[in-house]
């Protein structure tokens, strides 16, 4: 009986050790991945030697191209207030996560939204509101309009 218990404990111990080993390997993999990711992100902060947080970046072909892609994807309509060039609004393509704080996301189409000049101007580097999701569902907007009228 005693021998059986000792054997059982040994087996349990072996199992735990193996589990710890797998956990350690997984953690190491994760750390390596984030190091790789950091290196990748650092690479993405420059376009042909121009830092993506600089003003010169806005003159690059790479930015103009992704800017056009955003306008094609979302249309020339402010995703915050709905203004269009027909209303006399000037369209800006805005970085949701600002270039100064997230330079590696400067050319990421998923980080872009279309805002009119007025809405974009009121937005500072502190504001990272993603207006795309908020105004995605017109039904939600209608409901909000209704509740404004009722109360
Ligand atoms: Zn607007």
Keywords:
single chain, 151 residues, mainly alpha, two-stranded antiparallel ribbon, two-stranded antiparallel sheet, 9% strand, disordered C terminus, binds zinc ion
Q: How would you classify the helix and strand content by structural class?
A: mainly alpha
Bound molecules: zinc ion
| Unreliable spans | 137-151
> What summary fits the major beta sheet?
2 strands, antiparallel
Q: Please write the string of helix (H) and strand (E) elements.
A: HEEHEEHHH
The total number of structural domains is 2
| Strands in their spatial order, largest beta sheet | 1-2
The span between the termini is: 78 Å
Mean pLDDT over the residues: 84
Shape: elongated
What would you note in describing this structure?
This protein has 151 residues and is mainly α. It has 2 domains: 1-41; 46-136, no CATH class. 52% of the residues lie in helices and 9% in strands. It contains 5 helices and 4 strands, in the order αββαββααα. It has a two-stranded antiparallel sheet with strand order 1-2. β1 (46-47) and β2 form a beta hairpin. The termini are far apart. Residues 137-151 have low confidence and may be disordered.
């Amino acid at each position: 009986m005693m021998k059986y218990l000792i054997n059982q404990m040994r087996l349990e111990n072996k199992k735990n050790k193996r589990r710890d080993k797998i956990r350690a390997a997984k953690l190491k993999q994760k750390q390596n991945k984030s190091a790789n990711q950091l290196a990748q992100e650092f690479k993405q902060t420059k376009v042909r030697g121009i830092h993506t947080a600089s003003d010169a970046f806005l003159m690059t072909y790479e930015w103009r191209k992704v800017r056009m892609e955003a306008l094609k994807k979302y249309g020339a309509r402010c995703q915050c207030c709905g203004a269009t060039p027909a209303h006399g609004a000037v369209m800006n393509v805005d970085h949701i996560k600002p270039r100064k704080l997230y330079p590696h996301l400067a050319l990421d189409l998923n980080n872009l939204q279309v805002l009119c000049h007025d809405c974009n101007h009121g937005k500072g580097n502190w504001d990272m509101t993603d207006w795309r999701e908020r105004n995605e569902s017109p039904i939600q907007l209608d409901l909000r309009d209704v509740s404004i009228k009722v109360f």
